Amino acid sequence: MTSLRRSPERIRLPLGFSFSAVAAGIKVSGRPDLALVRAATGASAAALFTKNRVAAAPVVVGRAALRSTGGRVRAVVVNSGNANCATGPAGIQACERVCHDAGNLLGVPADEVFPSSTGIIGVRLPVEKILKKLPELVNLSARSPSQRVVRAFARAIMTTDTRPKIASARFRVASKEVTLLGIAKGAGMIHPQLATLLVYLFTDVGASARELRRLLREACDDSLNCMSIDGDTSTNDTVLLLASGASGARVRDVRTRKNFSAALNAVCQSLAEQIVTDGEGVQHVIRLFVEQARSREEAMQVARTIAHSMLVKTAWAGADPNWGRILAAVGRCGLPIDPSRVQIFIGSQKVCRNGIANEFNERQAHRDLAQPVCDVRVQLGRGRQSVRFLTTDLTAEYVRINADYST
Question: Tens digits of per-residue pLDDT, 338-385?
Fold first, then answer.
């Protein structure tokens, strides 16, 4: 049983970006809660946002900014501790004011400053605290980038996370070296269609915004959109990919594009695994494989139904090999599935054969589920499509964290 990946010790830094982080007093704890990424010469940008109809102010402002600039970003300002969501026109104005003042300090247009927020919903953004700290934040970003500063940025965007999430990759094409760095936050409200997450991806490859959009969507489909902790979709979800072009390599080159796509997929997969492993109250991560579906969409529908079942998740919390709960979830997924064709595996053991009990070693199945990571496989007997979906158990600690979140 292999463990999912954690943030690596070594961080590879792409050319063209600098980072900074400070404490602005948004978090009651006094920990760093305001961060900046600066792309001095500018970067092409592509983003994916939450599909929740209740979208936070920075999502509204950031989406509009990317449209108006054609996908051009010179800086990213992130605050944690406050989502600036459900704050009405005042929230939009506060977000725009942060972008305006940051732009003035950096000498760039306000719509090339990309905003993000994460934290509690429905509380007015303490914009004056942010504005007061912007000069310090900008001054710090003028320093040479380092692993230490990147880690500081990653910590500043955390909320209920217990650790920063960072992944990086590097490859060579001819004489050029391309680097990709990913930084994420997320621990609860995790559900496909992104999660309660902020993900920032930085690369020094050259690409247009249009090229980046396609690459980003493909990478997210099999990683950040294939995980769930609690079935809730946040209001602030953002995945932003920035390309500075400083390496001299271009994705229009076939070899570069192939290598970059592989690197982007690997970084996104690592970040997804780190997010799920750090889920609120999580004791057990489940790698759920749904196989023999007629389409990928069908496999996803089954995976989500299983992953969001409270009865299934609490069984996993107790390492209880109660396969009947999994089968019941399959049966109510909304598809015309024939239960007599369904096979279920826990670890390496087949626990359900053709929709009925199969003799297996219950102690071994319990030991498998008691591991930090366990594989559960469901075969539908309908086709050849499959999906790998990361999910978790549901523990009393998850309830405690979220019962106390705003107080």
Answer: 999 999 999 999 999 999 999 999 999 999 999 999 999 999 999 999
Separation of alpha carbons 295 and 301, rounded Å: 10
pTM of the shown model: 0.85
Q: At what angle do helices 323-331 and 296-307 cross, to 10 degrees?
A: 130
pLDDT digits over 28-60, tens only?
899 999 999 999 999 999 999 988 888 899 999
CA angle in degrees (0–180, nearest 5) for 219-267-205: 80
- From 159, 179, 196, 203, active-site residue: 196
**What ranges in 165-251 are assigned the alpha helix state H?**
209-221
CA atoms lying within 13 Å on the CB side of residue 263: 27
CA–CA gap between residue 177 and residue 44 (Å, rounded): 18
**196 catalytically annotated:** yes
CA distance 343 to 358: 9
Give yes or no for a contact between 391 and 288, defined as CB atoms under 8 angstroms apart: yes
Q: Which two tokens stand for residue 154?
A: 């990653």
Is 249 in contact with 52 (CB distance < 8 Å)? no
Taking only the tens place, the pLDDT of each residue in 171-182 is: 999 999 999 999
Strands (DSSP E) contained in 206-263 are: 238-243
169, β-bridge pairs: 180
Asked whether the beta carbons of 227 and 278 are under 8 A apart, the reply is no
